[in-house]
Fold this sequence. Notes:
four-stranded antiparallel sheet; eight-stranded mixed sheet; 12 strands
Amino acid sequence: MVTIGRRVIGCRVHALDEVDSTQAELARLAGEGALEGTVVTARHQRAGRGRRGRFWWDAPGEGLMLSVLLRPPVPAAQAPQLSLVGAVAVGDALEAATGVEARIRWPNDVLVSGLKVGGILPEAVSGPGGRLEHVILGIGINVNQDRFPADLSGRATSLRLTTGARQDTSRLLEAVLDALDRRYAEWLAGGFAVMRDAWRHRSATLGQPVALPEGGSGVAVDVDVDGALLVRAGDGGLRRVVSGELEGGERHAAGH
Ligand code: BTN
C-alpha cells in the first residue's frame, strides 16, 4: 500500500494484481472503516462490473481499473451525480496525460473518436433512514489494448489505438487521481452546477436524439444544475431524465 499525504483522493492506494472486482474489494475495506479517498487498483479483474450488471472486460495489465471510496455528506439522492463528476474528471485526466479530446456520453461513458474508452460505475450504500454511507466510484479505462472481443468491436477503443502509442498506466492513474481530487472538491463545495460548463464542453450527448425512459424520443438539449439530462420530447415538452440510461445512447455505447 502506498500512502500519499497531499490529497483526499488517493490518500491510500492498494495496488492489486488480480481480483474479482476492485468494487468488491473496496466495499470490504469500506466496511472496515477505510478512509475517504482510499483507492483499490488491479491489473486484472476476473469479474469486472459494468453498469446494469454487465461485465467489464479487460486484458491483464493493459487497462486502468480503479475504485475510489467517497463519503460525501450529502443526501443519497445526489449520489448518481458522481457519475458525471467522475466522467468530467476522467475527461480532464485523459486530455492532460495523453492530449486526446475526450467526450462524455451522459451519464457515465467517456468517448474518444466516438468510441467508448472508459466508463464510470457509482455504487452507493445507504444506512438507516436512507442516509448515504458511502459511494464506491469505479473507473475503467482502456489504455493499451490493441484489440477487443468481437462483441465490443466497433463500440470500444483504447488510448493506444486512438493515439498510436502505448501509454503509461501509472502516469494516467496519477492524472485521474489529481483530476478527481479537484472535481470532487468542487462538487462538495458547489454541486454539479460548478462543472456544468465543463460537462457541456465535453458532451457527446447534447444535440443528439435520445430515447426517453417512458417511451418515445427527443433531442438532448442541456444538462440541469443537478446533472439531469434535459430532453426536448417529440411533443415539444421538456423532460428531465434523472437516472438510468438512455436506451438510444446505450445501444451504441457501453458494451462493457
Ligand atoms: C460502465 O461503463 O459500465 C462502467 C464500467 C466500470 C468499470 C470499472 S473497472 C474498476 C471498477 N471495478 C469494477 O468491477 N468495475 C469498475
